[in-house]
Write a structure and sequence with these properties.
This protein is an alpha/beta fold. Helix content is 38%, strand content 19%. Strands 2-1-3-4-5 form a five-stranded parallel sheet, with helices on both faces. The structure holds 1,3,4-trihydroxy-5-OXO-cyclohexanecarboxylic acid. It comes from Promicromonospora umidemergens.
Length: 147
């Protein structure tokens, strides 16, 4: 059974209590449970991880690149959090490890501050989902598995 990875970046461990007017009230555990259920329904396994550390996300992306090359993984649903707007290292890890990535944002980053409109990840992602809340993760999993 192939794995689909769900990686969440900084501060997404605070989902549910963090700015609920922007990010809603679902917790990260709720989101991860939903991802696990959708993956199972699609015949694969979800592995969900979160880190507040850029280098750890880079390490995980490199590992996943090896899994993809060996046919053990389908790719990554990645919410890079604030690193979306700052991280050349995460962009380079995705490109260098040739990981299929769907970029996801809970909030509509294009309707917020100007600095959230630029993403270093988008040019190396298969696609982007933003502003649909937790259901975006489900759509991203479907896109990777069925796409
Ligand atoms: O941490 C986050 C969360 C976010 O990626 C989202 O899911 O909407 C949007 C980012 O701008 C922000 O820094």
């Amino acid at each position: 059974m192939r794995t689909i990875h769900i990686l969440n970046g900084p501060n997404l461990n605070l989902l549910g209590t963090r700015e609920p007017g922007v990010y809603g009230t679902a917790t990260l555990a709720d989101v991860e449970q939903r991802c696990a259920d959708v993956a199972t329904a699609l015949g694969c396994r979800a592995e969900c991880r979160q880190s507040n550390h850029e280098g750890r996300l880079v390490d995980w992306l490199q590992e996943i690149g090896r899994e993809v090359a060996e046919g053990r993984s389908i790719g990554v649903v990645l919410n890079p959090g604030a690193y979306t707007h700052t991280s050349v290292a995460i962009r380079d890890a995705i490109a260098g490890a040739q990981v299929p990535v769907v970029e996801i944002h809970v909030s509509n980053v294009h309707a917020r501050e100007e600095f959230r409109r630029h993403s270093y990840v988008t040019p190396v992602a298969r696609g982007v989902i933003a502003g649909l809340g937790p259901i975006g993760y489900e759509l991203a999993i479907r896109a990777l598995v069925e796409g």
